[in-house]
Every structure is written in structure tokens, then in C-alpha cells.
Design goal:
The protein has helices at residues 5-9, 50-61, 75-85, 105-119; strands at residues 41-45, 67-70, 92-95, 98-101. The protein is an alpha+beta fold and 120 residues long. The protein has a domain at 41-120: Glutaredoxin (3-Layer(aba) Sandwich). It has a four-stranded mixed β-sheet with strand order 2-1-3-4, covered by helices on one side. The longest helix is centred in the C-terminal third of the chain and has 15 residues, at 105-119. The protein is globular.
Length: 120
């Protein structure tokens, strides 16, 4: 069985990102108990990136559906990541046009909280 670098990095269950309910984590929820619900989330990753794995776990734990783009295997995704973020470091996330680059789960939680506040 030939696996792409992303297939080896991303477990089979994770390939359908955002699947299945997970218990909510309250540290990034608003006082109303509802989290920002995005229309479109794209996550630019590099295989074997620890921060990328943390971020996918955070998104899965918060039942956020997202598209994964492997920038090491897709030149167009790499170019778009660079155009959006101005850098080549991963991860980069695009949440309804709002960009966060080179971050971990803690920064993503703070970013999501800002999205919650903007949406209120």
C-alpha cells in the first residue's frame, strides 16, 4: 500500500476532518456556551509537524470541520499559503478569510476567541 506523506501522518480516522461529535471544551467558548461557527476552514500543514497535529486535534475536539492542504505535496497549496501568510512556516489556517500563521493550539484558542467576539 503506497501512502502519501500526509496519509502516513494523518490517521485514517482523521482524513475525514471534523467527523463525529466530541465533548466540548469550554476554555474557548463564549459566555453563551456557543463557539464561533465558521463557514469555511482550510488548514495548511506539513507532514510530521507537531504544531499541525496539535491544531488538528484542537479542531477535532471542538467539532470544527476543516480541509487539510499538505503544502509539501501540493505546489499550489504552498503558493497560496505563502500568499496568505507571507511566510513558509506551518501551520497556517484560513477561517472565513481570517488568517493565522505559525501557531499552536494555545494561539488557535485565543484566535477563535477573537472570532467569537467579532461575531457577537
Amino acid at each position: 500500500m503506497n501512502l502519501s506523506p500526509v496519509s502516513r501522518f494523518v490517521p485514517v480516522a482523521r482524513r475525514s476532518a471534523g467527523r463525529g461529535p466530541k465533548p466540548p471544551i469550554s476554555n474557548s467558548q463564549t459566555t453563551s456556551g456557543k463557539m464561533y461557527q465558521p463557514t469555511k476552514v482550510r488548514l495548511f500543514i506539513k507532514p510530521f509537524c507537531g504544531w499541525c497535529g496539535q491544531v488538528m486535534d484542537w479542531l477535532d475536539n471542538h467539532a470544527v470541520q476543516y480541509e487539510v492542504l499538505d503544502v509539501t505535496d501540493d505546489a499550489k497549496a504552498y503558493e497560496e499559503m505563502y500568499r496568505l501568510s507571507g511566510q513558509t512556516l506551518a501551520p497556517v489556517i484560513d477561517v472565513d478569510g481570517e488568517i493565522l500563521a505559525d501557531f499552536g493550539a494555545g494561539e488557535l484558542a485565543a484566535f477563535w476567541k477573537q472570532l467569537d467576539q467579532q461575531d457577537s
